[in-house]
């Protein structure tokens, strides 16, 4: 997808359309070109959308910025440096919708494939004073690291290191 005319008025119009579309059906793949071509401005809009009344719009903040979204092109910049997306996930970690929280967990699981220690540290912070819902999010986020026997992930979830086979 090519973005034609990415000046501020055109970008704003396109992002308003994204907002309207995602309230009706999933559109996380279509936000990705905006993130590639206008990352700072798009991330600023997504930060505001993290507080939108619609759970579909809030989910787009997480799902649309996933670096390894299974059915879309990877967001290589966020795969190299996920910190801009993690800042948005912080806003969504206690979302009232399990639909949104599940996306946050899947997003963290993606990040863990390239930055396992960063995800473990994020999850460590998130477990401090965690609600049962946030604890479940963390368990789901760490699933790949647990399967791989990552000592930090195992420790966070109360397990020792995986036995040597």
What does this structure look like?
This protein is mostly helical and 165 residues long. The chain has helices spanning 8-22, 28-37, 39-49, 55-63, 76-80, 83-92, 98-112, 116-127, 132-141, 143-147, 151-156. Helix 8 runs antiparallel to helix 9. The chain starts with 7 loop residues before the first helix and ends in a 9-residue tail after the last helix. The model is unreliable at 1-5 (pLDDT under 50).
Question: Which secondary structure elements does this structure contain, and how are they paired or packed?
Answer:
Blueprint: H1 8-22, H2 28-37, H3 39-49, H4 55-63, H5 76-80, H6 83-92, H7 98-112, H8 116-127, H9 132-141, H10 143-147, H11 151-156
- Rg, nearest Å: 16 Å
Distance between the termini: 47 Å
Order of helices and strands: HHHHHHHHHHH
Choose one word for the global shape.
Answer: globular
Q: Let me know the largest β-sheet.
A: none
The average pLDDT score comes to: 90
Multimeric state: single chain
């Amino acid at each position: 997808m090519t973005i034609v005319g990415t000046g501020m008025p055109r970008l704003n119009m396109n992002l308003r359309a994204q907002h309207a579309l995602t309230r009706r059906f999933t559109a996380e793949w279509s936000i990705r070109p905006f993130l590639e071509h206008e990352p700072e401005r798009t991330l600023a809009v997504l930060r505001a959308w993290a507080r939108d009344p619609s759970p579909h719009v809030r989910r787009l903040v997480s799902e649309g910025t996933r670096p390894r979204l299974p059915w879309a092109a990877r967001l290589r910049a966020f795969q190299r440096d996920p910190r801009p997306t993690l800042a948005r996930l912080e806003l969504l970690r206690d979302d009232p919708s399990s639909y949104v929280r599940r996306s946050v967990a899947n997003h963290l699981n993606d990040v863990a494939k390239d930055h396992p220690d960063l995800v473990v540290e994020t999850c460590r912070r998130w477990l401090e004073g965690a609600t049962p819902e946030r604890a479940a999010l963390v368990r789901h986020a760490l699933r790949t690291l647990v399967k791989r026997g990552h000592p930090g992930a195992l420790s966070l979830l109360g397990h020792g290191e995986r036995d040597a086979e």
